[in-house]
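[step 3/7] inverse_fold.run input=structure_tokens len=140
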């Protein structure tokens, strides 16, 4: 069975991040991240909470058992860097912001599917702004 420090590294690699990037998310410097991954130090709960916000499977790190909703390694490999960044931004967002993001993405996908030209695109963007304004008013 893998050790905690091996699982920390595995999760970092699964999420496609460097030690510097992962450490920054966790609120630590590269040297501390290196120490976590080599077993010289154990992470604290603040670090674990922070990395869980971007999709690190903390129960797996701590116990060696995967959570069902975590992203599988093969899914991460096919995600491009910008897609991973969007996913991380989404996971760090509030539920209200997540609803807004889904609405925007759905509207843009419909526009792309319909093949609307620039005039249609301007109309769609205004419609999307109006819808987002209504959602903010409802959430407030």
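[step 3/7] decode complete -> sequence:
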């Amino acid at each position: 069975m893998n050790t905690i420090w091996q699982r920390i590294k595995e999760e970092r690699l699964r999420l496609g991040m460097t030690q510097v990037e992962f450490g920054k998310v966790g609120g630590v410097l590269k040297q501390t991240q290196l120490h976590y991954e080599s077993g010289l130090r154990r992470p604290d709960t603040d670090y674990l909470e922070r990395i869980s916000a971007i999709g690190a499977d903390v129960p797996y790190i701590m116990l060696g058992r995967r959570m069902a909703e975590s992203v599988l390694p093969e899914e991460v490999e096919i995600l491009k860097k910008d897609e991973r960044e969007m996913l991380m931004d989404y996971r760090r967002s509030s539920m209200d912001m997540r609803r807004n993001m889904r609405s925007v993405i759905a509207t843009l996908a419909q526009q792309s599917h319909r093949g609307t030209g620039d005039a249609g695109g301007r109309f769609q963007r205004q419609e999307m702004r109006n819808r987002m304004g209504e959602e903010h008013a409802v959430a407030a």
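[step 4/7] annotate
The mean pLDDT is 80.
The chain has nine helices and no strands.
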